[in-house]
Amino acid sequence: AGTASPNNSYAAVGTDYQNNDPVCAVVDCVISNNIAQWKCVGGPAYYIRCRMTENTGLSWNSGVEGAWLYNCFAKDNPGTYFVMSPKDFVNCTFLSGANVRNPNVYANLRNSVIYALTGCTVYNCVYGSCDAATSNTESSRQVDFSTLTFDEEGRCTAEVLRDFGLNEYLDPVPEEFRGVDRDGVQRVYNGAVDVGAYEYDKRGDFAAD
């Protein structure tokens, strides 16, 4: 779990700068219960297979800015928005909490599961709601999230999530992390990657809540 940082003017984890190349990878971490003035996760860094919950942004953003996310799970982060970043978010699962917002044209959500969108560009995602500023929705699927069942770690076995991603979107993921999901399960069964932080095929043995 994280450390409350109410006096940090930018980020509880990482820094504020958006345009630099990533300088490190934060892998298999739980980032939770942080308080920051602006954001709880900053760049420039890769965040891989991380869990982000109950982080609060006092002024604006409860989650991520200036960072790359791969195979991450986020839920219940109170704030105006969870994501504001000109970076790539690949195979992530964002559930209830603040909206995912991408005001910068360089920000992209790919192969991800998103509860709510505001002004995003999405590529082969499954999402619940969006506003008129969300673009490229023709490549994605809008579903009623009340019909989907997720467990506490964001796992879901719904058919709508399976084999819907594009494998090419995995290319920017650092090679040593590209071949597995958040649980360490092999990515890409049946020729196409599943959307979200988990690869569901051949698993089916967890009990969703």
Highlighted features:
single chain; mainly beta; 12-stranded parallel β-sheet; 6-stranded parallel β-sheet; 30% strand; globular
What do these coordinates show?
The chain is an all-beta fold and 209 residues long. The strands form three sheets. Strands 1, 3, 5, 7, 9, 11, 12, 14, 15, 17, 19 and 20 form a twelve-stranded parallel beta sheet that branches. A six-stranded parallel beta sheet has the order 2-6-10-13-16-18, with no helix packed on it. The N terminus is likely disordered.
What is the number of helical segments per DSSP (H or I, 4+ residues)? 1
- Total beta strands: 20
Structural class: mainly beta
Average pLDDT over all residues: 79
Oligomer: single chain
Overall outline: globular
Q: How large a portion of the residues is in β-strands, by DSSP E? A: 25-35%
Unreliable spans are 1-9
In whole angstroms, the N-to-C terminal distance is 23 Å
Largest sheet: 12 strands, parallel
Helix percent band: under 10%
Our Rg estimate from Cα atoms comes to 16 Å
Name the helix and strand elements from N-terminus to C-terminus, one letter apiece. EEEEEEEEEEEEEEEEEEEEH
Quick summary:
With 209 residues, the chain is mainly β.
List strands and helices in order, with pairings.
Layout: E1 11-13, E2 25-27, E3 30-32, E4 35-36, E5 39-42, E6 46-48, E7 51-53, E8 56-57, E9 61-65, E10 68-70, E11 73-75, E12 81-83, E13 88-90, E14 93-94, E15 99-101, E16 108-110, E17 113-118, E18 122-123, E19 126-129, E20 141-142, H1 175-178
Parallel strand pairs: 1-5, 2-6, 3-7, 4-8, 5-9, 6-10, 7-11, 9-12, 10-13, 11-14, 12-15, 13-16, 14-17, 15-17, 16-18, 17-19, 19-20
